[in-house]
Amino acid sequence: MAHANRLTEQVKILTKRVHELEGALASRGQCRPEDHSGVDNVSAEDWTQEIQGVSDTIGTLSIGVNGQIKYHGESAGSEVSCAKWCGYEKSHLPVEILELVNSFPFGMRDCPHDKYTLLPYLPSRGRALELSDLYYKHVAWMYDPVINAEFMARIIEPIYGSTEDICLDSVHSHTLSVFFVILASGVLHDPHLDKQRLSDQYLALSRAALALDPIFHEATCATVQALFMILRYNYTFDRSSTEERWLLIGLCVRIAQSIGLQRDSSGWQLDSDEVQRRRRIFWEIYMYDAWTSIVNGRPPALNLQHTDCRLPDDHEPFITESGEKQLGWHAWKLRYAVACLSTSTQHVFSANAPPYMALLDLDKKIRLHPVPPHLQSPVRESETHRSWASDPVRAMQQYCILCERESNLLYIHRSYFAQAIRQDSDDPLKHQFAQSVLATYRSACRIISSLRGLYEVHKGDATNCWFFWSSVFSACIIFGALVIESPSCTLARDALQEFERTLPFYEEGSATTRPPSTLSTLRKLLQRAQDTFRAGGKDINTVNPRIPELPDELEVLEGRKSVIQDRRTSSSP
């Protein structure tokens, strides 16, 4: 009934939108084909029929005891159903600063404080440079919305000048927020301090600084940078903040649009550094928004069709021994976002499933997207023409490229994979979606085998990246689902063996970065897969009925339609 009501409401909204579009098109007389995509030829009744035929893999709703609802779409990462882990500790700061922290991100209506309230917490110039160096070495390798040159010119020099006398007169509070979040990230890589407490304090100061001037009236490029870097801090160091990150990226996008970052700045007579800065900020946000939308199974906030912003220059190209220039990591990832992620989001979030051939075309596009030689990584130990870089940062970027590409393939194929192994459990390789079965299985294998290689060379760095292990978790879910749903498939035995080999690897490598509940989930799934395989295809879940309110974990993890009723009491009033 609830599902029917939701679809009815969707139909009403979409029908209204169709009428609006028809009116707009009629008033314009004519429109380029790419602007309307045939909407003017579709009646409200036809649209209604299409919506009623929406895919069964619409994802999961989790409903709290007081009606709180969270949506996880069909492409959502497998861990959305696992309990979250929160290790955040409150910082000991005076009441006036905590007031600001609690008003983040919108700020106070009549703020009685100013940026000099934060002055006692600024470190010396030397200490600030130490922590920023740690940030740029250990954190900014993945996303870099404030490059080092900008940090020095726009933050360090205005605050410290050529002396140790700190001056905040020319520094906007939102720029100060950027400064503090860089310190918060950097200090976590300092081995000589009570780093978690100090990092929490710097993060609180970053939030407080942003709240000093309301974002409704004081939005600048620094506002967008600060919000983005705060949510990136949460992504890297606080795995319990998924919903906050999701909301912050939406806010970040709206502010970026309000200051015109989606439009190219070259026509506004800005200096070249500012043009590059605006382009860099926009595309870093676009990349993050597109990727996290696929991982969370929710539509992105940005659409490529709504921007003419050019890509920024490659500020860190790789120069070979022969002097050849190759794309650096940051330049590559933005080009991948334009070429592949944009199409992936359109495919994944279409309410009416696109033709299967469109998926195969997208698969080919992802696989053929070029990777610079210095960023190519070995997948198996037997490969001799590729090797892991001795520099841990470049090695991490090597794995990121492979992991992103293979995870991208896994996410776009997964719902088709799930249909194939359920609808043709005897031999899903004869199903019409057999190519998705093979693609999903191979991507899962490559994600794991490549991480094994990175782990052997750069164990500490690989261990610290929780999202690497999240991909391994998703790969194990694929193995378990294949064995349980299609134990007679020719891939089932290999999938089970790979699952059995991977679980100890996951347990060792993810011990300090993943919630204990994820390991428990994998152990239960492996046991179920082993029992099913040994029983000759009889799933033990058919022998031990589930609680009616709790869907089969595979229904949730495969992205199929399900509702989770959370019986825990809410902490909200």
From TrEMBL:
InterPro entries: Sec_Metabolite_Reg (IPR050613), XnlR_reg_dom (IPR007219). CDD domains: fungal_TF_MHR. Keywords: Nucleus. Transmembrane segments: none annotated. GO terms for molecular function: DNA binding; zinc ion binding. One of its GO terms (biological process) is DNA-templated transcription. Residues 245-318 form the Xylanolytic transcriptional activator regulatory domain. The keyword Plastid does not apply. One of its GO terms (cellular component) is nucleus. It is found in: Nucleus. This is Xylanolytic transcriptional activator regulatory domain-containing protein. It comes from Pleurotus ostreatus (strain PC15) (Oyster mushroom).
